[in-house]
Amino acid sequence: MKAFDRRQQLLGLIQRDPTLRVPDLAAQLDVSQGTIRNDLNALADAKQLVRVHGGGVALNNHTLPRSPAFAARALTQEDAKQRIGARAATLVADGDALLLDASSTVYHLAHFLLDRRGLRIVTNGIEVACLLAQNPTNTVNLVGGIVRAGIDSVIGPWSERFLHDVRIRTAFVSCSGFTPEVGMTEVDVYEAQFRIKAIESAAQVVALIDASKFGKLDMTPSVRMDQISMLLTDGALAADWAERMRAAGIPFEVCT
């Protein structure tokens, strides 16, 4: 079989079942695991999939946002969000209990979790829930409440009441603005309220904040700095912001 034909078959297998890993793919195509890894890298270089630990995630209509408004948000600072999401995914093991908000940065993280098994997920993000539910080993809990078009999230007192009864290992959250002095802030008061309640249920909170949000102070505070276990940002972070973070003793990592 020619390399092109084999890679198209490989891409089809991944599209149908994103949980397949390198040994499974090698067995199905009757080639070595080294050949599969080379093919995955070639498809990633061709922008046909995103390489993840042990396999790949196809970039097709099944994994892209269905909502045009949400897709526009996901494409803003896309490279930075993918780098942050890839690093955040290394903090997640099979079987973990996670809380994921409805942000576009967390949506990018979700792509890098498709090869995990047995995740127990609580989210108010409709796009996040649909993406991770593609893996049949996951248990995805979409909180109840009011569905908001454009933001593609569920908010309200019902969702906050649900959070009261759950215990989460790690909450991954983002924001629309951030300063070391105030912490994470939100344009939308309802999204801020969801995050405030969400982190009360989590043993640790990981903030996913691309560099473009540093220095922005939006209307509603959500997560204070003393509530954040780790902050992940990208290589576009200005040197003066990095110095301010270090001076404040804030645990952060630049994802390059």
Give a written overview of the molecule:
- By secondary structure, the chain is α/β, with parallel strands linked by helices.
- It folds into two domains: 57 residues, Arc Repressor Mutant, subunit A; 187 residues, Rossmann fold.
- The protein has ten helices and 14 strands.
- The strands form four sheets. The protein has a seven-stranded parallel β-sheet, with helices on both faces.
- Strand 4, helix 7 and strand 5 form a beta-alpha-beta unit.
- Helix 2 packs across helix 3, helix 4 packs across helix 6 and helix 5 packs across helix 6.
- It starts with a helix and ends with a strand.
- Keywords: DNA-binding, Transcription, Transcription regulation.
- This is HTH deoR-type domain-containing protein.
- One of its GO terms (molecular function) is DNA binding.
Count structural domains. Answer: 2
Which strand-content bin applies to the residues?
Answer: 15-25%
Specify the biggest β-sheet: 7 strands, parallel
* Shape assignment: globular
* Fraction of helical residues: 25-40%
pLDDT < 50 stretches: none
Q: SSE order, as H and E? A: HHHEEHHEHEHEEEHEEEHEEEHE
Oligomer: single chain
| DSSP strand tally | 14
CATH class categorisation of the largest domain? Alpha Beta
CATH topology name of the largest domain? Rossmann fold
Query: What is the end-to-end distance?
Result: 37 Å
Domain HTH deoR-type: 3-58
Protein name: HTH deoR-type domain-containing protein
Pfam families: DeoRC, HTH_DeoR
GO molecular function, one term: DNA-binding transcription factor activity
